[in-house]
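PT: before anyone asks, these are the final sequences, not the draft ones from last week. 686 residues across everything. Please model them as a single complex and drop the result in this thread when it's through.
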Amino acid sequence: MGINLALGQITAVIHLPIFLDTVGTVLVAGLSGTWVALATGFLSQLVFTVVSGNFTWLWFLPVQLAVAIYAGMSARLGVFRSVPTTLAGGIGLGIVAAVLSWPISFYIFGGVTGGGVSAVITALRGAGVSLGWSVLLGGLVSDVIDKTVTFLLVRTVLTSLPDRMKARFPVVTRALGRA
Amino acid sequence: MIVGYQPGTGVLHRAHPFTTTTVVGVAMVLTFTLPSPEGTLALVGVYVALAVLAGIPRVLLPAAIIVAPVWLFLVLIHAVIGDDPGRALVFGARITTMVVAFLMLLATIHPGRLVDALVDRGVPFAVGYLLAATLQAVPRLQAQGRAILDAQRCRGLRVRGSLARRVRAIVPLAVPLVLAALAEVDARAFALQSRGPGGRARTAITPPLDTTRDRVVRWGLVVVTLLAIVFRIVG
Amino acid sequence: MSIELEQVSFTYPSGAAPVLRRIGAEFAVGQVTLVTGALGSGCSTLLLTMAGLAPHTTGGLREGRVSVLGHDPATEEGHKALAGRVGVLLPMPWTQLSGMAFTVREEVAFGPANLGWPRARITDAVEAALHLLDVEHLAQRDPRTLSGGELQRVMFAAVVSVQPDVLLLDEPAQELDPLAAREVYALLPALAQRHTVVVATTDLDRAVSVSDRVLVMDRGYLASDGLPSDVLSTLPVVQSGASTTAATIAYRAGCPAPFPVTVDDLAVRYRR
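LR: through. Structure below.
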């Protein structure tokens, strides 16, 4: 639950130039499956919104929920078993997330959601790309990087969990393809 | 937390939590339905004024910090590069209204009070509790994150440098954090199990007052919002 | 007897080996009973089992018979029947906060309110509990701003405010400085007159003087059970390190068993 947020804090300390706001959701999907991940995604998006005081976050709740479902299915299919499959899964999630955030960013926020993505979008726009495409392309670039790193990170955490901890979670062995 | 509950005696503090929630929720709807740009801009004025009247002008500074970069990029994209400054104005006004209204909510409602009000209306206690407890766990987990980071740095973990190194650095931070969070969730479950509700209904110690004025304001706002939606569709 | 344990074993879902092995014991009102032993010997789990939290919340497998005030706390009916009658104080007091209270007074009222008591009864119980634990001066504070020691006493008050028949206390003085710890232990004999009090602690030096009985746990087995001066003065217990500092000093100094358990006993022995 609070894991998402605490990880967000750690990310901030390490100055990663990406969001990684879905690490907790993906991690919980790999530990406990889709339903718990959905609850985690819902709660953490709410908590992110409250803690940052930035209401615009809450509009992206559908994306967070989609991430939970996608990650839950990935875990079931054992996507975290190797680095290449994890990479592929992360890129896929990036595309899904970008496509889903596009209408929210475009219609509700006029393409601006703050941070690094807005800079990318502005640059594309300056290069003569239409606003719609700029928002989609900007989202794709940042989300694919963000979600790939997220998936790799979660794989590393899952594999380095002590066996005693793994035994507590029904999904881990399957997510790592060792069922 | 950028804005937490700020004790006070203003209009919104005295109102029933549902009234405040309605006032804030209505802003989110009206900002998309009022005729733009006049109505959208006027709404910003109304909510900024309300923040001052309610005795919480302090929320306006964090609100400005949050919306400033958004305005910057909106102006860049729509007015400087594009040729539609009006759009920048409307989108900027909408985001500003949403942020200001939401911060007012955070500043005037204690999460515990909101849960009390929800339980009072029949929402299961466990649902309300989960929300309140999660919010409460946040500062502690953040502190724990910092403590783990400090501890691992003391043991020589390097958190600067190349991207790959930074990503690798997250693992020795994330694993203890996950384990600690899980242990804490266990302990919380114990607490709720032993001190939480038994079979009988919970006694609200200081039930939030729901006055006639609260109800009138709530229904009035709902009617105004519905009218705005109707005019938007018809007009 | 308010608590009866018969052939009780418990295994956590993650563990291969049982943490409790065929424990048999009885607890009654009027006594302060200490449960002690090395880390991992099963003291905390024994309390969780009596509270029903194990296996109700932890999962895992319990065998044998547990009867608390005539109910099995692990069953759904027992859990309902025992709501508010068994008070549990756990270590890490900050994890026990309700998160629903502005003030310490409301935090202490959280348990009674959940039991659906009338408001007047809640107020009386809360004030009595605040007074007992000497935290009245904190009543208006935000619980999240308290120090560890203050918080531990507040949470103790929160457990007492429910007016339970059984008090299960796991390291109730862990966060306290030596003086405050002594004060908290000094409350126990009075509490024991109306409650069944069971305390899991490794802080024997302070706890032993207020206790009537000690259980020593060893790798899940109940190793010994009896009067503190009998149980803690034997050679095997002192050698295993599960006794008081006074007994250990006497053992190291070459005293013959039985060893003096308290500093006072030790002083008497040396004066001779």
